[in-house]
Amino acid sequence: MNNQAFNSLRKEVSDLNLELLELLFKRGKAVEKLGDFKRSHGLPVFDPEREQQILDGIEHMEHAPYPLESIQKIYKAIFDASKDIQHLARK
Ligand SMILES: O=C(O)C(=O)C[C@]1(C(=O)O)C=C[C@@H](O)C=C1
């Protein structure tokens, strides 16, 4: 790979970072609304069954070149961030 190809891949990664952030933003907005519903219905923030259902769902999806464990870690970090949003809204 030459320098130009390297820089072009860096640009691709930077563009994908923005796309990821946009998706996380949209996801966070939906999570906020789920949190409002749960709060007004006296439901807990943490729903371990729902988290497991999502993790089970990704298990059979294409995740290469990442190992499945890496994808699971990323999703668990996203769940934690969701719970942060919903806990903060209760304060
Ligand atoms: O499905 C919900 O109840 C959510 O609040 C969303 C979400 C998630 O980020 O996917 C967040 C926290 C719960 O523990 C389970 C799932």
Structure overview:
It is a single chain. This protein has 91 residues and is mostly helical. The chain has one domain: Chorismate mutase (Chorismate Mutase Domain, subunit A, Up-down Bundle). The chain is 79% helix and 0% strand. Helix 1 crosses helix 3 and helix 2 (48-59) runs antiparallel to helix 3. Bound molecules: prephenic acid (PRE). Prephenic acid binds next to helix 1, helix 2 and helix 3.
Summing up helix and strand content along with how strands pair, one would put the structural category as: mainly alpha
Helical segment tally?
A: 3
CATH topology, what is it called? Chorismate Mutase Domain, subunit A
Could you tell me the strand content as a percent range? under 5%
CATH architecture descriptor: Up-down Bundle
Query: Tell me, what is the CATH class?
Result: Mainly Alpha
Keywords: Isomerase
GO biological process, one term: chorismate metabolic process
GO molecular function: chorismate mutase activity
Protein name: 3-deoxy-7-phosphoheptulonate synthase / chorismate mutase
List the helices and strands and how they pair.
Elements (H helix, E strand, L loop, with lengths): L2 H38 L7 H12 L8 H22 L2
Helix pairs in contact: 1-3, 2-3
The structure holds prephenic acid.
The site of prephenic acid has 11 residues, from helix 1, helix 2 and helix 3.
